[in-house]
Amino acid sequence: MKNVISEKLSILNQSHLLKHIKELPESEQSGLINQLETLDFSVLHETGAEEKRGHMEPLYAATLADIEKNRETYRKTGIEAIRNGKVGAVLLAGGQGSRLGFNKPKGMFNIGVNRELYIFECLINNLLDVVRETGTWIPLFIMTSTDNDRDTREFLEEHNYFGYSSDNVMFFVQEQLPTVDTNGKLMLADRGTVSTAPNGNGGWYASMVKSGVLKSLKKADIEWLNVFAVDNVLQRMVDPCFIGAIIESGRQCGAKVVAKAAPDERVGVMCLEDGKPSIVEYYEMTDEMRTRREEDGTLSYNWGVILNYVFRTDKLNDILGMHLPLHRAFKKIKYLDENGNIVIPEEPNAYKFETLVLDMVKLQDSCLAYEVEREKEFAPVKNKEGVDSVDTARELLKLNGVEI
Ligand code: UTP
Description:
single chain; binds uridine 5'-triphosphate
């Protein structure tokens, strides 16, 4: 098998990965060979060129005013679905959180000032509101990655899941993809391991299926999955009114959105692309798209996504295995240099590859964009300071009456 691998690496111009193999004990040699056997080499063909986009048109949202008019109907429908065990929550917590610069899973970050208040705790508190409202424990699936799985599980266990029922918490680990340096070479993390990074948040459903947690999901007859980011401390998940609005609308999926703060705000925006729901990134928008307005003065491309989506499980099964574009991100990635020394770079040095959950929206026929109030539901903790940082999130928590 070693010879087959070595020939493959030679063809791919990646023979350096075996440079130190002879120095390793036998078990580590076979560990490296096993890793190479299953490694996804497709990243070597990724040039970073973004996929050509189709014809864009505005997609209109259910606005706060629209929702208010139908609130009771939506809420009733949503509560019924939740009580009937039709809805599950999927917390995406496999990211590396490199911008925050916290060396533990982001959910373990203490955002409290005068008391301990962890990001995971904020999310669970919000979900517990729905548990109380519906009298139902909602299955909570937590996606971790190879690097943070153990810390995440231990932390939540130590804190008794912040009051959530542990029977209703299920973990699964996402896949990894190799990282590539600026010369197109795969990297070694140490002598016996090829450097890999989590494959982005778009792989969540495939990883969920692969892990087998889906079996418990099937048993529970879940029809809708609400998938959301770990880093929004005001995140309202499995919101009965949102769930009910999607069901009533007959659409295949739903996305919580906020009105853009300004035409040039750096946020992905919901739109129609070739007639299908889609998300256009801020840097992909033309000036005309950025500034175009409706008759009433609102921006035509007004609805920024906040990484809170609801998908139908049968539709997710239909798209399982379909190609999602790989996006590459230039990051600081630790590696083993030619002399066998581990280097921790201070500047970005290599690419990691990710599929994104927002690209799953495009594979659905229809999507309900559902407006929520930014100040009440959107407080992302992305950066150490400045925009979307610990400080801005703390202010928003206070504004919402959360003691910090
Ligand atoms: P981000 O895009 O903010 O990525 O993730 P990140 O890796 O957490 O942070 P940076 O870019 O290194 O600073 C948005 C959401 O998607 C999850 C994150 O945990 C967060 O909830 N995510 C991201 C995953 O679950 N897996 C991934 O591979 C990437």
